[in-house]
Amino acid sequence: MIRTEKILHLKNNRGRRLRVVREHYLREEVPCYSSVCQAGCPNGGKVLPGDLTHYVVPDVGVGVDYLEILEFQEMQGIIFTQTVCQAVQHSKGRRQYNRLRNLLKDPRHDCVLFSNEFQEYSYCPREKGESQEEWQTRCVYSAAVWYHNHLAGLMDIVMITQDQDTVTEYSSLNSGVYVVSVQDYLKNFWPDLQGAHELYASISLALQVKESEGKEEEYRDHLPAEVLDAGIKSGRYIQGTLNVSKHRAQTEAFVMLEGFSNKSSDIGWCVLVHGDKARNRAVHGDIVVVELLPKSEWKGKVTALTEGQGEEKSGEDERKPMATGRVVGVQQRNWRDYVVTVPPREGPQAQSRNFQRILTVPWDHRIPKIRISTQQADTLQDHRVVVRIDSWETSSLYPNGHTVRVLGRAGELDTEVQTIVVENSISVPPFSDAQLREMPLNSAENPWTVDPAQVEARLDIRQSHLVFSIDPKGCEDVDDTLSVRCLADGKLFELGVHIADVTHFVKEGSLTDLEARSRATTYYLADRRYDMLPAVLSSDLCSLLGGVDRYAMSVIWELDAHTLAVNKVWYGRTIIRSSYQLHYELAQALLNGEQVPVPELAQVSPEQKDSRLAELTQALETLTFIARHLRAQRDRGGALELEGVEVRAKLDEQKNITALVPRQPLEVHETVAECMIYANHWVARKIQETFPHQALLRRHPPPRQEFFSQLVESAKARGFNIDTTTNKTLADSLERAVDPEDSLVNRLLRMMTTQAMSEALYFSTGALTVPEFYHYGLALDCYTHFTSPIRRYADMVVHRLLTAAIAEEKALSKMLASNKEVEQMSQHINKKNRAAKRAQKLSTELFQCLFFKDRDPQSDPHCMADGIIYSIRDDGVLVFVPEYGIKAPVYLKNREGQVVMVQQDGSCERTSGTIRRHRDHISTTSACGTSTFRLFDHITVRISVSSSHCHADRIHLEIISNKPYQSSQPAQPHTEARCQLVREVVRLAEEAHQQAQQKEARRSKFSREEREFCQSKTPNLYSLLEEVRELALMDLEMVGQVCATTA
Amino acid sequence: MAGLELLSDQGYRLDGRKATEVRKVQARMGVFAQADGSAYLEQGNTKALAVVYGPHEMRGSRSRTLHDRAVINCQYSMATFSTAERKRRPHGDRKSTEMSLHLKQTFEAAVMTQLYPRSQIDIYVKILQSDGGNYSVCVNAATLAVIDAGIPMRDYVCACTVGFVDETPLADLCYAEESGGVSSLALALLPRGGQIALLQMDARLHQDHLEALIEAAMIACKGVSKVLDEVVRQHLQEVSMLTAE
């Protein structure tokens, strides 16, 4: 018989006057997931430990309102009942429910779900006339009693509730089952868990406030979901993601449409939502439904630069109107944790109650002010606090929220960095003991050794191949090595790419793996980094260091020496020993035939040294030859310049670094990158062939043509023609668009190209059709990430796929993640990558600001710089300062209506006048004449920091002169000047180095960060700032303080 | 559409069953005296009454007569009170015509029609209460009715629907599951030989999953057949006791 013992029960639910009868099957054996279970329940998966004093059973009210408290990892032995889960799902929506589900799945968290309504003895049918709440409480209580009996009284059960009646009604019914309120529970059982107490207070205050809300309507009600769905189907409403404008957060927001099926010519791809009322309580990021307004009410987008918030521009609305709508409903809230600043109080406010309601200002401009109620209004002043939004009633102008935790005083470096981290929803707690316990040991007394069984299973190429790595100087986590050799008398080349075998150490589903998955990538901030894997792996056992045996995943090609056609590819696990750990400069020097000492050969006798050096140089040359060929192959396919795609956003900031540090892009950079691309490409092919439905690949969709308009127009201003039809024509025309006078023009054009690009994304092959796999930037039909498993989770997934592909056992493929899971995972990784990129950018900006903050803009020479105009706006221009990599607006017209006029000698002054914008230039007119600013003009700007209390500080540029800054020489002799500068920097750095040992320690730490940062194989702004700071150390003591705080 | 979670993480369905479990089946044979065979079957909350007349001479148009076997005539109908909303259900609408056709095909495959040339067998099925899996309940009820009428069959015909949710086949869908956008498949099986009498599916399903789905349906059908077998044996016992007296 396949049926289990079951009794038929009927459950009536009334809705729409329907009497629906549903069956309800009960059974005896419902697993209890407790390790002290006496009855031998089939407990699979997560089990509650037996060494606790009690188990907690939250009731429905607690589960719905106080779930956050139960999310503390310290809280152990929580039993969620099915009743609670269903209540959460019904009353709080999918988001909250998913949170609960993730909590239940998370093995780090001690909680289980008990299906109490399917258990024969814990189920209680709803009685006639019993209210839903009463019934739910009864269900939960009977589940608690069942647990107590089931565990034969070995474990005390505590049911927590918010309802005093429940406490009085049930608490004395059964011994061993206690019913207490949340507050008492926390007080008695977790007196030390301060965070939970505060959170409890803040949530309950927020709930109280919600009840006592007034009734005047500020906003219109949202329409019910059925009406919205029907409206979307009929085309009356449009659904999309709300995107609030960064610059005019008060008034402007756009709804990005999903899909283009209903695209009509006059709507375009986004709808403007103008003003608070029309936005109707939607918050940035929500999925909203909008209704289009009649055409007569359509408004235009304001393209003027506004100096500061709250400035009303009247008469600007005449601009070409675009589709405008108002929000009629919110499909899904995407509220996250927000960082807010509690503003200083203006005068004492008489508050009768013992808590206060204060309006806090979110760090993100796009988020409306949030009203919180707190008892610690005074202590919180000037602090940055993490806040969650609870609700936004129609009667309230602002949303209500509650505080979660305090980050610290505003303006302190650590607070600011934490702010960036929280704002990007990055969660990087230190690795827990349990995770570290999973790690293999490697200490001086107990060194890690190669397992003989692994040597058997792997291809041993320690003796046969010359393996070497090329990385930035002093890199710690080497995850890729190369090998190359000639076979068959030089008719064949054998190229090998060997990648650290991280998945050997990190088993799928282990705690470390879960942590790595939730982090998805290593986060590089300007002054620190958050590793994806514990240090013992990332910088030791997985790192392919020189001279030690390491496990690797290898791809080895056999190439024809002349045509470089691939004869054979081999994928597999290997054991390697890297002979040389080179850095880029050294490798390039070897290639150039310079005599440079190789550290690995220092101990070797001279004659041996020569032969080994020759061998190494030969290998490098072959490698370069192959890489050139591969590159040419891709170029024919239309590959854009690599930096132009992947790390372009970084590159524009680096521009200035090349201006200070002569880290010329060496050819060897490209050689290594090319080999990695090649490896990634071939791995992508392999896993896609083997797993056509569940391989994780990376695609780069072609950009939308309309995004290119700025690029094309700007180029036209300089007389270049950019053809954007395909990536090939784009690459070619960018190649041609070089101004011999000014090399920056080409860089700026490439920068704009990058802005137009869509983002490269991970995806599962089962989710898209084959033509969509195309990588636009690299011009490859399929691509994935395989070469950096230490710092990207996607690579680990690909490693596992490849391992399964090699094993070629169908049984194994069953265990792999399904298409749906892979797709979910890739979306998660994409999200985290985006967050990582944004956090990196924000932290760079933060340091830019720190750099300029303590300088006097009037006197300090660092604050004067050369800028280049790259875009024209209504009342100003956007300027790029190559020296510092700053992009910021310059206002030609200030609030008083004064415009910038150029004097005879080029200096600028402000007088009253008018301003006119043209396609490629902007001109100001006043009584004394007209002055014009054109695209790509060089101007001198003064850099200052406009500090803001509640938000991030911002760089402010002011135009000084329309001539290039005097210190920067004309374009041609630029390089020499640069070299001079560099020499000076180096000299100064050395002096500083000698000056104090202390400083040395700090400096080396910095350079370590920098090296880590250079993992992306590109220099970054951080090193620039470091160099500049070193310079500054000599001049100003003030900067030293900045250094000290950053250290 | 969002909303109901058809299969929870713990592996329970909406009504508390696990993925492979069939609803409770209860049946009685010989509920009417006038007919040659009759049966009443409940599968969960779906209840059906099946009545068999025949084999008898051809009625109506004699041109349909087959000289080598019997003609099977099926008629399917639903009671006005069978669903949550009371609704008049005229004879001969598309749905019930289709269902009749399917029943006919199923029983032509199972009944040994060659034993009764030039005759006709009528099978009437009425759904009294509908809660998903109407077709399979009809087939199961009709099987019992045919057995009650004493018409030889190759084997019991057992039917079951299966749906596909979260990569898992769910056996014997109830109405809430059927209406939740699940791609479902109905299968009628001659369990002893494992022959398929009818397989019907009108939803989209990836080819890779079809095999697993059919496998699950077969297992469910075999489970149903055991229950039917028991019912028949018990009925025979009762009848023989009565006749012995």
TrEMBL record, chain A:
State whether keyword Protein transport applies. no
Coiled-coil region(s): 982-1009
Localization per Swiss-Prot or TrEMBL: Cytoplasm
Identify the keywords attached in UniProt to this record, alphabetized. Coiled coil, Cytoplasm, Exonuclease, Exosome, Hydrolase, Magnesium, Nuclease, RNA-binding
Family annotation (InterPro entries)? Dis3_CSD2, NA-bd_OB-fold, RNase_II/R, RNase_II/R_CS, RNR_Ribonuclease, Rrp44_CSD1
| Matches recorded under CDD domains | PIN_Rrp44-like
Q: What's the protein called, per UniProt?
A: DIS3-like exonuclease 1
Its source organism is Cynoglossus semilaevis
According to the entry, what is the taxonomic lineage of the organism? Eukaryota, Metazoa, Chordata, Craniata, Vertebrata
UniProtKB/TrEMBL annotation, chain B:
Which stretches make up the Exoribonuclease phosphorolytic domain? Answer: 21-152, 155-218
Q: Which Pfam families match?
A: RNase_PH (PF01138), RNase_PH_C (PF03725)
Q: Which compartments is it annotated to reside in? A: Cytoplasm; Nucleus, Nucleolus; Nucleus, Nucleoplasm
InterPro entries for this protein: ExoRNase_PH_dom1 (IPR001247), ExoRNase_PH_dom2 (IPR015847), ExoRNase_PH_dom2_sf (IPR036345), PNPase/RNase_PH_dom_sf (IPR027408), Ribosomal_Su5_D2-typ_SF (IPR020568), RNase_PH (IPR050080)
Gene3D superfamilies recorded for this chain? GHMP Kinase, N-terminal domain
GO terms under cellular component: cytoplasmic exosome (RNase complex); nuclear exosome (RNase complex); nucleolus; nucleoplasm
Domain of life of the native organism: Eukaryota
The entry's keywords: Acetylation, Cytoplasm, Exosome, Nucleus, RNA-binding, rRNA processing
GO terms of biological process kind: nuclear mRNA surveillance; poly(A)-dependent snoRNA 3'-end processing; rRNA catabolic process; rRNA processing; U4 snRNA 3'-end processing
Which GO terms label this protein's molecular function in UniProt?
A: RNA binding
SUBUNIT field: Component of the RNA exosome core complex (Exo-9), composed of EXOSC1, EXOSC2, EXOSC3, EXOSC4, EXOSC5, EXOSC6, EXOSC7, EXOSC8 and EXOSC9; within the complex interacts with EXOSC2, EXOSC7 and EXOSC9. The catalytically inactive RNA exosome core complex (Exo-9) associates with the catalytic subunit EXOSC10/RRP6. Exo-9 may associate with DIS3 to form the nucleolar exosome complex, or DIS3L to form the cytoplasmic exosome complex.
Give the protein family: Belongs to the RNase PH family.
What protein does this entry describe? Exosome complex component RRP41
Instruction: State the species of origin.
Output: Cynoglossus semilaevis
